[in-house]
């Protein structure tokens, strides 16, 4: 009975409940952030969500309800990470993708396009193969010295590059770049939580020793940066795309960190790594397909084309009038 309550079955159940919470949080917060009547141009194409605008949005009941769901999902996810390896727990969050699609479809009273279904299936299939492959060779060991610091610096550099790309490009590119950066930060959080729990459980360090406190500080910074990037993604794209980036990139980053940082992939052969790369690429293709074929992205492209068509005749007319005056 005790083994049942502390084994991977409970961890999987907690992770599944967390996925439901994350999907609901994404839909609620996207609705609050993308409201075009919001301050500082929140939700307007090409606009960056300012700190002032975010502060005003953070007072909305829908956004706060989404935050509460996200906090509950994070607590459930953290509990699952204590009970099972990263490679088992992390990819279960991909269930949030179809849940978010379903919630949005119910909210709008419409059926998602075929491209959306293809993107969802590729994302789920890629992550499913990834987790099953990684879990077959996963082992849990305490992290080596300085491994957490090295992993944190590498992920921080990746997050900064993605944030710069997101701030430089509008539309779905900004949405995907910011959401991917946030997912990388959250993947680091999961890896640090697992590393700290393993180190404390093995007795290598105490709960209040400097390495643990430093990891806790890193977790706090990663949560803040990742949360800010996710809000930028909500302001630039639909919730399904954001949650797809989070649930695809987060487990990939976390599993890779688990393999390198925690030694969970020490027994993984080369051909298995090749399959992991193919699965990750498939899941990434699913996210891109979902981002490009989502109705919001299609409508945005149609609106830009319409603006270009209407502005071109006006430019020709002004040029003709100028020549006539000469």
UniProtKB/TrEMBL annotation:
<keyword id="KW-1133">Transmembrane helix</keyword>
<feature type="transmembrane region" description="Helical">
    <location>
        <begin position="88"/>
        <end position="106"/>
    </location>
</feature>
<feature type="transmembrane region" description="Helical">
    <location>
        <begin position="172"/>
        <end position="192"/>
    </location>
</feature>
<keyword id="KW-0472">Membrane</keyword>
<feature type="region of interest" description="Disordered">
    <location>
        <begin position="302"/>
        <end position="326"/>
    </location>
</feature>
<feature type="transmembrane region" description="Helical">
    <location>
        <begin position="62"/>
        <end position="82"/>
    </location>
</feature>
<feature type="transmembrane region" description="Helical">
    <location>
        <begin position="113"/>
        <end position="135"/>
    </location>
</feature>
<feature type="transmembrane region" description="Helical">
    <location>
        <begin position="273"/>
        <end position="291"/>
    </location>
</feature>
<protein>
    <recommendedName>
        <fullName>Magnesium transporter NIPA</fullName>
    </recommendedName>
</protein>
<feature type="transmembrane region" description="Helical">
    <location>
        <begin position="147"/>
        <end position="165"/>
    </location>
</feature>
<feature type="transmembrane region" description="Helical">
    <location>
        <begin position="242"/>
        <end position="261"/>
    </location>
</feature>
<feature type="transmembrane region" description="Helical">
    <location>
        <begin position="212"/>
        <end position="230"/>
    </location>
</feature>
<feature type="transmembrane region" description="Helical">
    <location>
        <begin position="6"/>
        <end position="28"/>
    </location>
</feature>
<keyword id="KW-0812">Transmembrane</keyword>
């Amino acid at each position: 009975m005790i083994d049942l309550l502390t084994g991977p079955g409970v961890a999987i159940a907690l992770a599944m409940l967390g996925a439901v919470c994350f999907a609901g949080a994404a839909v609620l917060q996207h609705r609050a952030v993308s409201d075009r009547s919001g301050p500082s141009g929140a939700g307007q194409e090409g606009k960056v969500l300012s700190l002032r605008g975010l502060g005003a949005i953070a007072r909305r009941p829908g956004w706060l309800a989404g935050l509460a769901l996200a906090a509950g999902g994070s607590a459930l996810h953290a509990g699952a990470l204590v009970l099972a390896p990263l490679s088992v727990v992390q990819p279960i969050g991909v269930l949030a993708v179809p849940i978010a699609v379903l919630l949005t479809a119910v909210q709008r009273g419409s059926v998602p396009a075929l491209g959306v279904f293809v993107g969802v299936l590729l994302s789920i299939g890629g992550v499913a193969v990834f987790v099953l492959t990684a879990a077959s060779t996963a082992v849990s060991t305490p992290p080596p010295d300085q491994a957490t610091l090295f992993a944190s610096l590498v992920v921080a550099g990746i997050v900064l590059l993605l944030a710069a790309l997101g701030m430089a490009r509008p539309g779905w590119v900004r949405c995907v770049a910011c959401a991917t950066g946030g997912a990388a930060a959250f993947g680091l959080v999961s890896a640090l939580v697992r590393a700290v729990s393993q180190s404390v459980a093995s007795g290598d360090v105490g709960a209040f020793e400097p390495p643990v406190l430093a990891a806790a500080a890193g977790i706090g910074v990663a949560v803040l940066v990742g949360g800010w990037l996710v809000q930028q993604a909500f302001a630039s794209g639909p919730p399904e795309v954001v949650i797809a980036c989070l649930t695809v990139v987060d487990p990939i980053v976390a599993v890779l960190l688990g393999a390198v940082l925690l030694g969970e992939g020490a027994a993984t052969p080369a051909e298995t790594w090749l399959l992991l790369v193919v699965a990750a690429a498939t899941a990434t293709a699913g996210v891109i397909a979902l981002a490009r074929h989502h109705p919001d992205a299609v409508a945005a492209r149609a609106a830009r084309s319409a603006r270009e068509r209407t502005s071109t005749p006006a430019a020709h007319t002004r040029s003709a009038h100028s020549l006539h005056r000469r």
